[in-house]
């Protein structure tokens, strides 16, 4: 009899859905372009072209619409973030290079990926355009209908083939529930926009005034700078001191919120895909183990290869157990990195606002403007890719560490070799302790005999002035040969520590893992720095406040001039009427 899970897999192996999501993605470009044309027709251009240009025939219609402001948008942030989350499944297809809309030669693979990325972006463009459009009554209807189409097609795909060939029951639902949740949120958001816009259209609510250049939190930040610093009254908690403290005068831009939301969902999908691959590999290994077991049974445990086969089976069993056990710590590591990226963004951008660039390498103090503009376009996509690849690398490294622990500590005890293991462990710890002790002894001898006394009682350490020079030179000569051998171990430890830190921090795009002087080779870190500079130059609260004051003064002067001309016209008309009566 087959197990229930096996029957489910076989059932879904023959399941064919009536919805081809890749084909639907192609056809979704038709309503997407239709919505873009409608919103572009409603959008008026601010500056009309010259009369000799044929575009004047369009009047001031068909303006350029944008999905969202990647630099200065602080309102509606979570709606944009959820809209990014709705694209997670398609982003994962692009990441795995599984989506290939065209059949082109291998050397032109980059162009195919570019075309696929543009197509995915164009198919999801209406979500963002409808959220950011000024014509909320029309855009809410269009956005709701478009989101409903995607939601219905995704539900149909999941309902027809809910199970899969790897995990089994509800495998398809495991892949698509984040997108369904995001689409459901967008449906509610567009419905809320429609109700609000309809109330304004009917006159039941007042139209919201024109959005100011200066955000509320930016104004509060400037006010805080102008206030006299007060002594801290309330003691901060451990969480506020060590992890995060909420700042009412700071808000993350929509780009950062959307990047983090999409990174979370893509990381979840990547873990699910990895687990499906693991299930497939595990099943193949089970078949291989059954063959090995058949050989052992056939030879009645007396074959020449029996000891090797037993070790191979043990290796397979340990590897499977360690890989599953390290999924959780690797996932938590990457999740903590995503939260830490937000913390570092706020810390770094505030230091740039204060004019502090000491945390940056010297070559990044004045980056090229073009490089910074390109960096802000690269950052979000690169951040997600770094997190996904970082998870896989961290998982592999943690699995290798787990294998070392299993073979070094656990398996010897299982095989009744605990005493030998403890003996070897004790010898290793004693050797390392002696080496470290000799290094500490060198430091103590140098501080006690080869340095002159302190100049003052308040000094923390002795001055760097040699004492007992003859003894020092003998000390240096005899330790020269020993330190050659010690340097070999120090070199290997340096290599090991660099590899461990490099792989552990590979997902951290906010800090470089390169040596000092080679930071420019870290393209991810360069993208982070360029993104920070663009945000610094365009969202600095002091600069934005200054621009707000200039704009307000300009409007006030314009209003005064308009009032003055109106008064002159009124007085001229009155004078004309009086003169006419006379």
TrEMBL record:
Top-level taxonomic group: Eukaryota
Signal peptide (residue range): none
InterPro entries, A to Z: STRA6-like
Membrane topology type: Multi-pass membrane protein
GO cellular-component term (any): plasma membrane
Subcellular location: Cell membrane
A Pfam cross-reference name: RBP_receptor
Transmembrane segments: 24-42, 135-153, 173-191, 260-281, 322-343, 388-410, 422-445, 480-507
GO biological process, alphabetically ordered: vitamin A import into cell
GO MF term (any one): signaling receptor activity
Keywords: Cell membrane, Membrane, Receptor, Transmembrane, Transmembrane helix, Transport
Name this protein carries in UniProt: Stimulated by retinoic acid gene 6 protein-like
Organism: Macaca fascicularis (Crab-eating macaque)
């Amino acid at each position: 009899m087959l197990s229930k899970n096996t029957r489910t897999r076989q059932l879904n192996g023959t399941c064919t859905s009536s919805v081809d999501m890749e084909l639907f993605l192609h056809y979704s470009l038709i309503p997407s372009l239709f919505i873009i044309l409608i919103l572009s027709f409603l959008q008026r251009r601010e500056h009309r072209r010259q009369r000799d240009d044929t575009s004047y025939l369009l009047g001031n219609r068909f303006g350029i619409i944008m999905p969202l402001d990647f630099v200065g948008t602080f309102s509606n942030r979570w709606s944009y973030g959820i809209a990014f989350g709705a694209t997670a499944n398609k982003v994962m297809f692009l990441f795995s290079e599984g989506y290939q809309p065209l059949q082109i030669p291998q050397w032109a693979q980059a162009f195919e990926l570019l075309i696929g990325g543009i197509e995915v972006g164009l198919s999801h463009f209406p979500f963002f355009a409808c959220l950011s459009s000024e014509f909320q009554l029309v855009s809410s209807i269009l956005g709701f209908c478009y989101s409903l189409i995607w939601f219905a097609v995704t539900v149909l795909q999941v309902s027809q083939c809910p199970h899969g060939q790897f995990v089994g029951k509800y495998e398809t639902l495991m892949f698509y529930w984040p997108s369904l949740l995001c689409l459901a949120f967008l449906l509610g958001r567009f419905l809320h926009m429609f109700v609000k816009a309809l109330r304004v259209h009917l006159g039941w609510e007042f139209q919201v005034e024109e959005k100011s250049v200066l955000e509320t939190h930016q104004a509060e930040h400037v006010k805080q700078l102008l206030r006299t610093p007060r002594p801290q009254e309330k003691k901060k908690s451990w969480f506020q001191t060590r992890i995060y403290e909420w700042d009412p005068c700071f808000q993350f831009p929509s780009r950062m919120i959307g990047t983090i939301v999409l990174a979370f969902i893509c990381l979840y999908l990547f873990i699910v895909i990895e687990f499906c691959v693991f299930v497939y590999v595990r099943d193949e290994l089970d078949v291989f183990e059954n063959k090995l077991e058949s050989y052992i049974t056939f030879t009645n445990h007396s074959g020449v290869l029996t000891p090797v086969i037993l070790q191979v089976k043990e290796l397979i069993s340990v590897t499977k157990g360690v890989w599953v056990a390290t999924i959780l710590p690797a996932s938590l590591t990457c999740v903590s990195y995503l939260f830490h990226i937000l913390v570092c963004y706020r810390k770094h951008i505030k230091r740039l606002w204060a004019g502090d660039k000491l945390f940056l390498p010297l070559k990044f103090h004045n980056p090229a403007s073009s490089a910074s503009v390109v960096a802000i376009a690269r950052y979000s996509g690169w951040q997600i890719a770094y997190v996904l690849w970082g998870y896989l690398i961290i998982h592999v490294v943690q699995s290798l560490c787990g294998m070392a622990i299993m073979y070094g500590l656990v398996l010897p005890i299982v095989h009744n070799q605990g005493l030998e293991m403890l003996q070897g462990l004790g010898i290793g710890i004693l050797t390392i302790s002696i080496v470290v002790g000799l290094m500490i002894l060198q430091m103590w001898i140098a501080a006690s005999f080869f340095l002159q006394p302190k100049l003052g009682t308040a000094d923390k350490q002795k001055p760097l002035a040699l004492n007992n020079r003859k003894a020092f030179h003998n000390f240096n000569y005899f330790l020269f040969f020993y330190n050659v051998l010690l340097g070999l171990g120090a070199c290997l430890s340096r290599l090991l520590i660099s590899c461990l830190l490099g792989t552990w921090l590979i997902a951290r795009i906010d800090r470089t893992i390169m040596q000092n002087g080679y930071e420019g080779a870290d393209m991810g870190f360069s993208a982070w720095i360029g993104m920070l500079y663009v945000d610094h130059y365009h969202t600095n609260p002091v600069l934005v406040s200054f621009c707000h004051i200039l704009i307000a003064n300009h409007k006030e002067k314009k209003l005064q001039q308009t009032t003055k001309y109106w008064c002159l016209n009124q007085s001229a008309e009155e004078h004309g009427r009086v003169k006419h009566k006379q």
